[in-house]
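Hi team,

Below is the intake form for Kinase-like protein from Aureobasidium pullulans EXF-150. Please confirm the fields before the structure is written into the shared record.

FORM ID: S-0412
PROTEIN: Kinase-like protein
ORGANISM: Aureobasidium pullulans EXF-150
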Amino acid sequence: MTSKVVGVGRQFVVKYGRGLDLIEGQNAIWVATHTGIRVPKIYALYEDSEDEIKYIIMERLSGITLEEAWPSISNAQKDMVCVKLRNIMQELRALPSPGGYCSLDKRPLPDGLMHFEGTHEDPSIISGGPFATEQDLNRAIIQRAATFHEHIKGKAKFYERVFSEVFINHPPTYSHGDFQRKNIMVNFLESGVEVALIDWESAAWWPSYYDYSTALFGCHRFADDWHHWLEKVLDPCLKEAPWVLMLINELYY
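The structure came back. Fields below:
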């Protein structure tokens, strides 16, 4: 069962499901505690012991998603939003890693480039870290992909050669992990615009290229100008992004 999201009145949103990871709520609490970034206030995190369904009860933020707003807002409004988003992402990316590439409290990295389906007798193959170096992370991504995705096995040596040249010197950087317009809330007021980030399940200390590259994936068919404005929010990683997009397509589609 995948997670579902329902609104409860004007104040609350409940996200629930057996596949839900409560770290999403824990990440939001941690970010709210350590930054000035606007995120949904988390009221409760729990798992029903009988049916194993997990619940996150959170604040219902005012406004609409940037995805909904984008077609109808002016360039001046887009610029205003992107200035706020750049400040948000700079503050987020300044949060120091507790040690290497990992999730909160040095837990394993979430899905993303570590995606797999199935089990394996060797725990090192399914380990999501933490990883002390980018080289360790690169090896784990390739090994896991080749183990669980038959069509990638023949490409493993190729990826090893590419990764050793492309994915180097990227420090662990706290990343939202799913930086798409659908996960950005905006509320336009006479005094300006309020901007908030939602959906923190993929947040972790990923390599510094990760948020830009996965955000570019969220541009889908590049049907509008979001990709242009995205570069005002995050410094482009044009060398790394195509390889990330290729790997994501192979892991998920």
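SUMMARY LINE: The domain at 1-60 is CATH 3.30.200.20 (Phosphorylase Kinase; domain 1).

Thanks, M.
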